[in-house]
């Protein structure tokens, strides 16, 4: 999404370093000081966009997915700016062909358009900062053709007339004299230009971002015949439903399906949130055979957001073991959540069987480095995911890696299988050491 919106920034589409104050800096000030005007620009997206932007595939060897067209369709070549105002070109193409960045004004060697043939000099009123309600007129290069038109593109230098009359070979800008070449002075961008840019670029940024979101959430799923599942005491333990792909002209392949819902008990004032069970498979990393009897513990954390920062404690745990196929299922968890002040996060997984390194510290796969938070990892595993555990060869390896997690705030009975498995591991290590010391 960030990259999509960057395509509406001239300095990004014209490869112009923007360290000092630029269009993006002005936008931030405009958003804070002129919120009503800013919101009005966001509320007027350029719609609808052409469906061709997300339906062309493999037109560029480096951009093979349908959404690439939202950025660049390769139809603007630098010689045909007339096509860029239409909603069938990429956002980067429109921005590049119709707007300047601070250091690419009329640098047509690098960027053919806008060019001097694209503009006319027109006087525009400019507010006087120290005299509210009063304006003065300043000449601007007014975009009159070669693509989009009807707005101030750049300023005409204050000293251009003086320079033409008195120093025709040079022009003054800031603290330096610059060589006057081919009658070209030193134009610039100011707030009048930036506001004109924003009035065109922000609505397009919204439109193209909306289309990007629509593409990622284009799938439709119908869920029918939803029914509660109750236990012997009539407590709701889950629900069943039939799910159907309702996306037009597109199949559903791969991935997993997670169902979440919320409900309120008859005597409750807050909603309870639930999520469907998640499953994965445990394998021996060397033999690739299923590991039966591995203990799986899932722990949930409560994050309480206090004025001095979040406070985290463990609030619940569930335990299971892998079956003969190495499979395990973690059932959904129900707990009251209070938006803003309290969140339930997790589950955090531990998978262990004596003789094996435990997950998530001594496993072989998957790579969980990018999921790790404060030494823990959330359950990102979906249906059919595989965890490979390393089997230790020697007692020395087992001793070095025998420290299994314990969970403060969680009663031992919540993960008693893990405690027993750890005891069994220590017992096996002692026997292995005894055999070694006895010369076996």
Can you describe this structure?
There is one protein chain. With about 450 residues, this protein is α+β, with helices and mostly antiparallel strands. It has a 4-stranded mixed sheet with strand order 13-10-17-16, with no helix packed on it. Helix 3 crosses helix 4 (about 35-40). Helix content is about 25%, strand content about 25%. It has helices spanning about 1-5, 10-15, 25-35, 35-40, 70, 90-100, 160-165, 190-215, 395-400, 415-435, and strands at about 120-125, 135-145, 150-155, 170-175, 175-180, 220-230, 235-245, 260-265, 270-275, 280-285, 295-305, 310-320, 325-330, 335, 340-350, 365, 385-390. It is built from 10 helices and 17 strands.
Shape: elongated
**For this entry, what is the oligomeric state of its chains?**
single chain
- Rounded to the nearest angstrom, the distance between the terminal CA atoms is 63 Å
**Helical content band:** 10-25%
Average pLDDT: 80
The radius of gyration computed from the alpha-carbon positions, rounded to a whole number of angstroms, is: 32 Å
Structural class: alpha+beta
Strand content: 25-35%
Count of helical regions: 10
């Amino acid at each position: 999404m960030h990259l999509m919106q960057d395509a509406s920034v001239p300095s990004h589409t014209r490869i112009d370093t923007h360290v000092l104050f630029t269009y993006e800096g002005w936008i931030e000030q405009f958003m804070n000081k002129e919120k009503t005007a800013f919101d009005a620009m966001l509320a007027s997206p350029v719609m609808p966009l052409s469906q061709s932007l997300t339906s062309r595939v493999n037109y560029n060897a480096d951009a093979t997915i349908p959404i690439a067209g939202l950025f660049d369709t390769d139809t603007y070549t630098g010689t045909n700016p007339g096509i860029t105002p239409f909603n069938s070109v990429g956002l980067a193409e429109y921005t590049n062909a119709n707007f300047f960045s601070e250091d690419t004004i009329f640098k047509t060697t690098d960027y053919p358009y806008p060019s001097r043939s694209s503009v006319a000099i027109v006087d525009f009123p400019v507010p006087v900062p120290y005299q509210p309600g009063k304006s003065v007129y300043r000449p601007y290069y007014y975009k009159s053709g070669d693509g989009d038109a009807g707005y101030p593109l750049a300023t005409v230098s204050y000293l251009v007339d003086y320079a033409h009359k008195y120093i025709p070979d040079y022009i003054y800008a800031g603290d330096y004299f610059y060589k006057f070449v081919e009658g070209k002075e030193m134009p610039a961008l100011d707030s009048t230009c930036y506001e004109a840019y924003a009035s065109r670029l922000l609505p397009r940024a919204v439109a193209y971002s909306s289309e990007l979101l629509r593409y990622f959430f284009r799938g439709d799923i119908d869920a029918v015949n939803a029914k509660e599942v109750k236990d012997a005491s009539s407590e709701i333990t889950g629900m069943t439903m039939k799910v159907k792909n309702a996306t037009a002209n597109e199949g559903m392949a791969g991935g997993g399906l997670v169902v979440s819902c919320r409900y309120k008990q008859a005597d409750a004032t807050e909603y309870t949130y639930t999520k469907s069970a998640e499953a994965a498979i445990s394998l021996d990393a060397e033999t690739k055979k299923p590991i039966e009897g591995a203990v799986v513990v899932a722990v949930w954390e409560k994050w309480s957001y206090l004025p001095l920062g979040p406070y985290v404690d463990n609030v619940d745990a569930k335990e299971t073991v892998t079956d003969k196929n190495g499979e395990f299922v973690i059932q959904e968890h129900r707990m009251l959540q209070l938006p803003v002040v309290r969140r339930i996060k997790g589950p955090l997984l531990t998978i262990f069987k004596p003789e094996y390194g435990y997950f998530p510290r001594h496993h072989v796969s998957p790579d969980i480095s990018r999921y790790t938070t404060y030494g823990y990892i959330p359950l990102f595993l979906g249906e059919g995911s595989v965890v490979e555990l390393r089997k230790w060869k020697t007692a020395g390896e087992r001793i070095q890696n025998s420290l299994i997690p314990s969970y403060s705030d969680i009663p031992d009975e919540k993960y008693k299988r893990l405690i027993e498995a750890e005891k069994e591991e220590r017992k096996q290590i002692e026997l292995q050491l005894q055999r070694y010391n006895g010369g076996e």
